[in-house]
């Protein structure tokens, strides 16, 4: 395709029309120029490819279509994979790359060129109704996994569309709410996963979010879509709206948004035409957007090819992946794995009809759903009592039958979790509680059966007031259509749990970072917690949690030792390698996740989390086997975003590198010195004596700066025997602006300014 030549042949109306969808899922085609359409589909954890949608609106239902005489929209069968909350628990880059590739092949088999995913928004609150569709509360983990998913998908020739850009962290009023976020929090928490998907994953497209960001809709946010995304990150793809997210079409075009989805019925296309004709919009801006869009379409068309549909093969792969995402939260007395000869009762309807996905736009018409009960059909020692369904009891007679069966069994396994009505796209949760009937069932079963196991089907954290009453808890998350196969293999030890929590489970909702005002305002979401999201918040406040970030048990045991850094100091452009020896000390083959965190040991002057995840690596070991894991770190791993210079900055000084198996289990520690210049001083009016003292390199320079403080400095030396008084006056000097020094000293202002000039740029 000769793109520039094609643009010269396009009419103004054709250019404008190309920048909005032809319908719900296709781009416009221009037959006279030989430009075909390309087709998109949800979703991140499985293909939601529809047929007969071309002449229907977004809200067209089968019944409405029948009444109108039209052909009903139908959704093709596809494999339902574990949702993002489950996938993130794998902590497995290779697994994500593999999944991206398989999804790409399924797209090709369904003549789909763009897959709308992955979703990488940060889990700011455990209440967000769409958390099941997002990876993590940690931006580094989310970014690493997203980059692999994107690159795996695009290697097959299918464009990823990373979403929702950006600061879309709630469902309540998501289409009009203004996310009020400071620059540092955006850069450190809410943007890095998108940055990694672009820089490391090579994402071809992004989807902007519905919300406003600091007063400007994401779809027309020039700073976000051009300054950050294109200029800083080097993004060369296209940006499309979330479905129905367009606000001002002309301003969005100026800001750097190419494609409006779905079709506006020509209304917004006409606004573009009129804006060009009246001089409000330069046609060169329109041409730039058209060129980007055609380049993207051309890439998709070049990779368009036939591929066989392999639903059965992919179904088996979905079950394998689900196994690697499950998190064993408790296993008292090695209750798990079960033995085939044990008499076991399965309780709860999720054993028969598991909840495997969340509600909303990513909902899959699954090829085939495995249940734990169907997979257990050949084991005569397993019986089943429904007992409850979602939020309702199956009746008193069934309830008592279940309790008797539990009492007579060797082990009771309760299949519990959250119904669709509790978490879905479009609304947020109001609490962390499971349905009361399920809590009652767990308590009453545990009262008659000491060996009670709870198997969870959830998309996000739940409260567990019953935790001390049961022997084991296995969290499957929403693990796709292979959930039943994975559940049975994990319960009976044919697979060993290796998942780790990608989010903190708090003890109470009130402990969560954004609790005071999350979802309260209809107009604004103020991110008052700043960078203190997830474990950063719980660690900084020293709060106990139900389960920490990174936590997960195994059917075997591991040890880590000999943490070593290959250098003692680090400068700009250098890399340090952290190595640690991991050993399987148990009697089963298992997989450990080595987690590396970094913390600053110096005086915290800017507000930094005690520790932050900066590396992780999976390692599978046979009993007694040892391997050395190596994790590289560059200067970014030690940096925070410094708003005074609008860039990443690593303070000079000592840092600790921690290694262990969760954010709260870090037995190994090594230190390294970062050598970096101090920040340039700001304007004279904002600089204090303390700022100058931070620049001093020798005791003589420090004394010279002290002398500027006149009698206040003298009082510090006079109080040599009173340490508390010295600290108090030193604090006063630290905060004393240079322009006020003359009020406490006879030092001439030109001398003060001379010292300032000398030290300013160090």
What this model shows, in words?
The chain is α/β, with parallel strands linked by helices. It has 24 helices and 31 strands. The chain starts with a helix and ends with a helix. Residues 61-66 have low confidence and may be disordered.
Can you give keywords for this protein?
762 residues; alpha/beta; Rossmann fold; Immunoglobulin-like; 5-stranded parallel beta sheet; 31% helix
CATH architecture of the domain at 318-547: 3-Layer(aba) Sandwich
3D shape: globular
CATH topology of the domain at 318-547: Rossmann fold
The CATH class of the domain at 318-547 turns out to be Alpha Beta
Short description:
31% of the residues lie in helices and 19% in strands. With 762 residues, it is α/β, with parallel strands linked by helices. α21 packs antiparallel against α22.
SSE topology:
Elements: H1 3-9, H2 12-18, E1 40-41, E2 50-51, H3 62-68, E3 74-75, H4 84-89, H5 93-109, E4 114-115, H6 139-154, E5 159-165, E6 178-180, H7 183-190, H8 192-199, E7 205-208, E8 212-213, E9 216-217, H9 222-232, E10 238-241, H10 249-255, H11 267-277, H12 283-302, H13 311-325, E11 327-331, E12 344-347, H14 372-375, E13 382-385, E14 388-389, E15 392-393, H15 396-408, E16 411-417, H16 436-448, E17 452-457, E18 472-475, H17 483-491, E19 505-506, E20 524-526, H18 535-540, E21 545-547, E22 558-565, E23 569-570, E24 575-584, E25 590-600, E26 612-621, E27 626-634, E28 640-642, E29 647-649, E30 653-660, E31 668-674, H19 689-695, H20 699-707, H21 711-718, H22 723-734, H23 738-741, H24 749-759
Parallel strand pairs: 1-4, 4-5, 5-7, 6-8, 6-20, 7-10, 12-13, 12-16, 16-17, 17-18, 23-31
Antiparallel strand pairs: 2-3, 8-9, 11-18, 14-15, 19-21, 22-24, 24-27, 25-26, 25-30, 28-29, 30-31
